[in-house]
Amino acid sequence: MELRSYQWEVIMPALEGKNIIIWLPTGSGKTRAAMYVAMRHLEMRPHAKVAMIVNKVHLVHQHFSKEFEPHLRGKYRTIPISGDTEQKGCFANFVKKTDVIICTAQILYNALQNPSEEKHVEITDFTLLIIDECHHTQKDAIYNKVMQIYLEKKLKHERNLPQILGLTASPGTGGASSFEDAEDHILQICANLDTWKIMSAKVNIEDLEAKAKQPNKQYDLVPERDKDPFGDKLKSLMATINEYLGENGCTSSDFGTQMYEQKVVEMEKEGAVEANRMKRTCALHLRKYNDALFINDTVRMQDAYESLERFFIEERFIRKSDDPTDVFLCRLFSDNSNNLLELSRDKNNENPKLLRLEEILKEHFQSSSGSRGIIFTRTRESTYSLHDWITSNSALKELKIKSAALTGAGFSNQTKHMTQNEQQDVIERFRNGSLNLLVSTSVAEEGLDIPQCNIVVRYGLMTNEISMVQARGRARAEDSCYSFLAKSGGKESRREMTNESLEDLMKRVIDHVQKMPEKEYGEKILDLQLSSLIERQVKQAKVEQKKKFNPQDVRLDCRNCVIAVGHGNDFRVVEGIHHVNVNPNFKVYYEEYTAPVDLGKKMEDWVPGGAIRCRFCERNWGIMMIYKGVSLPTVGIKNFIITTPEGRRPYKQWKDVPFPLELFNYNQYCEENNLLFVDDDDDDDD
């Protein structure tokens, strides 16, 4: 194995056992450099044990198969463990038996927190901890939770802590626009990772620039539509709903904006808390019409129309209903749907961004049969819509473009989600050439080992400088192009220009931190670590104070129909994550209405059942989980309103509810519900 001169330059302190962050551009071989450090660490240190943690499942298998296994095979035992592997249930055992573990940060954190002696691991079980995409080590991110365990031990002067090696292409500025605030952000990441120094190529910068060439950047800015009768029609329907509600403070210029989206989100919350079904239902519809305006601005009019049509079908508002608000909203859409459909098919008013995207793809895929590209877009819905547009575009078909959508694997009720196997399949087909164009959400920005692209398009995106740097790094082929495609004069193009300034600010701040006197730097890092520890303790105390109500005094109502469905003491926590209702009477309030849900991964002790919904209003609540043979309804707290002696309010996450939750006791539950499970191997006839 050979390293380039700039790789040797950045790893030297790590070979001496120091904690460092390696800051190198995408495609410059950070993982290869880290793997070499791990190999030398294993060779030089007795009883060494290495863990590499990542923040996306597909990176576990990628780093294992592309770097660690080929170079360490035969000398060291290496294993990949992620949420879709059966080995995760025996994580602690594999820590004892293997030399290198590559896993998601969540799996390591779960093991660090597991109270069971046979499943628990300590951070000191490892001698080297490699953290991929380490700029995520901040706030409540999972990387930072792992490092908080490390820092608590460090500040108690415990020994045998692992060496830390962080990898990043862009630490970012943390949203800061001033030098001082950006410096605070960089130093905080260094403190969180207990970093001795950020290492980047200085002496061998020419070698790095030759390896990681920057693409040609172009701004492809298009004017707004001359006319948008489809969008105007959507806005007129929204105005009609506002009039029905008595909300006359909004103008058509408010519709289709993020500000208006926030307004209707708050309106829906108010309706739920006030048990005002009219306000809540109208807010849900206004949100969908607003989403349709977003889609209309991003992709095709027909995609916006189909999104609205799916909403009405899936929410079953087209059925007959005695509720006057349901009748009004259903009739409003049905009376105007034909007109909307006709307007959506008018090719004279199609989205100009799509016309420019077609020109960009023609330019780059006509010139070379070996062209590869990625189009980055904001949402899963726009990803699938763009992919459908590409596959149905006759002009692009002639260019032999073979495209696929690539989105996150997290389960979503709103749009189609990819399983992890589907993700892996798309990525592998792109690698081997059966695909030459990906349409992707941000999931393809970080870490993916994909072939060099000669065209990368950021399509109407408004993100931070880290995303910009990561996406740009995918365009690594000779004479490659990075296109930012957006509306002329829009907020997206202004943000992209801001990102360029922030990237420059980040570089200047890192250079300043690298040159900081060692004593001054060390004092600042220690001060930040102590402050973080105190802040965590104060935050935890506040969380405990919020759990001030007895569970039996807390009522849960369906967020949609306001029917009371249970109390706080009906709920238990399974494996520290899943919130289930153990009251047998709860089954009168819900129904299981789908086949078992495919989560795209295997769980150790349970399998998913079907989705469940309110029996009375059909709002989705969650899914059934079959835990060790026992069927339990697991629900999302966002689907309910909590009533306490102080009033009613919604919660987004279970961790924020104002009452304590007990852990699920499997044996106790089986005993109380007269459940008996017989061993299949028992030959006793009795």
Care to describe what's here?
The N and C termini lie far apart (65 Å). With 686 residues, the chain is α/β, with parallel strands linked by helices. Mean pLDDT is 90; it is low at 678-686. The protein has a 7-stranded parallel sheet, sandwiched between helices. The protein has a 6-stranded parallel sheet with strand order 8-13-12-9-11-10, with helices on both faces. It has a 4-stranded antiparallel sheet with strand order 15-14-22-23, with helices on one face. The longest helix has 29 residues, at 518-546. The protein folds into 4 domains: 5-211 and 524-532, P-loop containing nucleotide triphosphate hydrolases (Rossmann fold), CATH 3.40.50; 216-224 and 351-511, Rossmann fold (3-Layer(aba) Sandwich), CATH 3.40.50; 229-349, phosphoenolpyruvate carboxylase, domain 3 (Up-down Bundle), CATH 1.20.1320.30; 551-672, Metal Binding Protein, Guanine Nucleotide Exchange Factor, Chain A. Helix 5 crosses helix 6 (142-155) and helix 9 (229-245) runs antiparallel to helix 13 (324-344).
Summarize the structure.
By secondary structure, this protein is an alpha/beta fold. The chain is built from 21 helices and 24 strands. Residues 678-686 have low confidence and may be disordered.
Question: Any key phrases for this structure?
Answer:
686 residues, alpha/beta, Rossmann fold, phosphoenolpyruvate carboxylase, domain 3, 4 domains, seven-stranded parallel sheet, six-stranded parallel sheet, 24 strands, 17% strand, globular, disordered C terminus
